[in-house]
User: Fold this.
Amino acid sequence: MKKLEVKGVKAKLSPKEKSILTYVESNPGTKSGEIANKLHIPNPTVKRILTKLFNENLIEKYGIGAGTNYSIK
Assistant:
């Protein structure tokens, strides 16, 4: 999250967005279902937030469908 603190992005994120981003940073290559289970956030919410973070160029997405995984950019 240090990279994001420098950019000033961290302050603009919701608590759920911060927790998901922190989890992805600590667990590169993670999948949305794993994030949902570990953070106790509903999977549709996790997917919506991951899409937002991807569109904001904060994370990278690899694969398609059930094989999609995420890492910090």
